[in-house]
Amino acid sequence: MPTVENEVIIIAPVEKVFGYLRQPSNLQKIWPSLVDITNETILASGGYSYQWTYKMSGIKLTGTGECVDIKQNSLLSSKNTGAINSTVSFRFQCMGIHTRVILTIDYEIPLPLLGHFAENIVLKMNEKEAELILDNLRIIFEESQPLSSILNTNSIIKVR
Questions:
Q1: 69, exposed or middle or buried, with CB in 10 Å at 0-12, 13-18, 19+?
Q2: Residue at 60 is within a domain
Q3: Which one of 70, 88, 152, 160 is separated from 61 by 20 to 30 angstroms, measured CA to CA?
Q4: Mean pLDDT across the stretch 26-52?
Q5: What is the DSSP letter of 116?
Q6: Domain of residue 85, CATH code
Q7: What is the per-residue pLDDT for 58?
C-alpha cells in the first residue's frame, strides 16, 4: 500500500485550520482531483461521513469516507472505501501563531482500472497532489488574512 506524506506550516491558529479541515465539503476547495463531496453527516463521535467523487488519470471514481479518529486540534483521520481504499490523516501542531499540518495518505492503487504500467505515474501524481493540497490550504489562510492578523500585533505599520 503506497503512502504519500507532506507537510506545511501555515500562519493561522491551529483551531481555525482544524475547524476548516473538519468540514468535508472544504476538502473539495483544496484537493484538485476531488470532484464532489455529498451527503455529509455529523457522527456521534464529532466526526463525519460523506460520499466522494475523485478523478484519477481521467477516470471518475466514487466511494464513501468516514472519520475514524478525531482529536480536537490534533488529528483528523478518515477511512475511505469504494473505487479507492485509503486512509487520509491530517495531523496538527500548534506553533504559536503558526500551525504545522502533516498530511498522510495511505492508499491502494486500483490496478484493474489503471494497469501496472501506470502505477509509477500515479504515485508521482499523488505526491504532487499532496503538495498542492497543502499549498492550497496555506493560501486559503494566509492570502485571505489582513496583514495585521498575520503579524498578530497591535502596532501601527507606517509605509513611506
A1: middle
A2: yes
A3: 70
A4: 92
A5: G
A6: 3.30.530.20
A7: 81
Q: Could you tell me the three cell numbers for 59?
A: 477516470
Grid cell at residue 67: 472519520
C-alpha cell at 16: 481555525
The three grid cell numbers given for residue 35, joined into one nine-digit string: 470532484
From the list 71, 117, 110, the residue with the least C-alpha distance to 92 is 71
Which contiguous run of DSSP H or E holds residue 75?
strand 75-82
Domains of the chain: total: 1
74 is a domain residue: yes
CB 50 within 8 A of CB 24: yes
Tell me: the pLDDT tens digits for 59-114?
Answer: 898 999 999 999 999 999 999 999 889 999 999 999 999 999 999 999 887 666 55
pTM (predicted TM-score): 0.84
Half-sphere exposure of 111 (CA within 13 A, CB side): 7
- Alpha-carbon distance of 101 to 135, in angstroms, equals 11
pLDDT 10s digits, 121-145: 777 888 899 999 999 999 999 986 5
Question: Residue 27: which domain range?
Answer: 3-151
Flag whether 160 is in a domain. Answer: no
Identify the residue whose cell numbers are 477511512.
79
d(C-alpha 156, C-alpha 115), whole Å: 59
Report the amino acid identity of residue 120.
Answer: N
